[in-house]
Amino acid sequence: MARPEAIENNSEQGLECWLSTIEARWQNIPEFEVPEEKLQHLAVICDGNRRAAQERGLNSFYGHRAGVEVIRGVTRACRQWQIHTLTFWTWSTENWKRDREQIGYVMDLAARFLRDSELKRELFENEVRFTQLGRKDRLPLGVKQALDDLERETRVFNRYRLNLAMDYGGADELTRAAVELHYLMRDERLKPEDILKDSSLILNCLDTRGQPLPDLVIRTGVKKGETPHTSGFMPLQSAYACWEFMPDLFPNLTPKRLLESVNNFLEYERRFGR
């Protein structure tokens, strides 16, 4: 029987091989340009990280590490295709129910990703503004500081936008927006009839204020035959968005598969009630 150290080493070697495969995959991004008037904001619910690792016989936590590499690849692809705003939902308000070891692993991974010099170089060179969607008060101090730093350092940019939904939940976002509206009305800066006349006043209290609404939302990792669900992602902002529920686990996503989804969306005409 193999010793635990040998098993661990094999698992780490398997992870490095997996990461190399993902990196190579996202070096071959097809040439394409998205019409700005058709698709400005793409959102991705990154589901299936742990399942993808388990399928490879690896520690399930390693799926999150692989997911980070796919986030890098998708970010590059969307810039290359001229998609202005990109959102990844990586940690929900419900994910705190997971075991402490996994929470610690993900939070440490997030802090390292947010402080990564390569990430910062790409954001600065391409004039990408970074924004966190969700709460900060429950995040570890290191993650919170890294988020604050990246938001501050990129706030002058607007050529592209990159959102990381972390400790985000749609119900929580709407609750926080309601509290903000309450204080605005209490201070007589806003009247209820103002909101009835202009619904954008509510949008301006959401985490995505000042950003284009999502046009296409992709949820990965939806099992075949499973009834898909939105998990409350951007319930107000995505009211007119198109959704695709794909069986591909997030770490297994390829540039070709992502472009296929984008093209399917571009062929669809949204009427917005007309």
Percent in helix: 40-55%
Helix segment tally = 10
Can you tell me the overall shape? globular
- The beta-strand count equals 6
Q: Write the element-wise H/E pattern from the N-terminal end onward.
A: HEHHEHHEHEHHHEEH
- The chain-level structural class is alpha/beta
User: Within the largest sheet, what's the order of strands?
Assistant: 3-4-2-1-5-6
How much of the sequence lies in strands comes to 5-15%
Distance between the termini: 67 Å
Account of the protein in words:
The structure is a single chain. The longest helix is centred in the N-terminal third of the chain and has 22 residues, at 4-25. The protein has a domain at 169-206. With 274 residues, it is α/β, with parallel strands linked by helices. It is globular and about 60 Å long. The termini are far apart. Strand 3, helix 6 and strand 4 form a beta-alpha-beta unit. It has a six-stranded parallel beta sheet with strand order 3-4-2-1-5-6, with helices on both faces. The chain has helices at residues 4-25, 49-55, 62-80, 100-114, 117-125, 141-154, 170-186, 192-197, 200-203, 255-266, and strands at 41-45, 85-92, 128-133, 160-168, 216-219, 242-245. The model is unreliable at 1-9 (pLDDT under 50). The protein contains ten helices and six strands. Helix 1 packs parallel to helix 3, helix 2 crosses helix 3 and helix 4 (100-114) runs parallel beside helix 6.
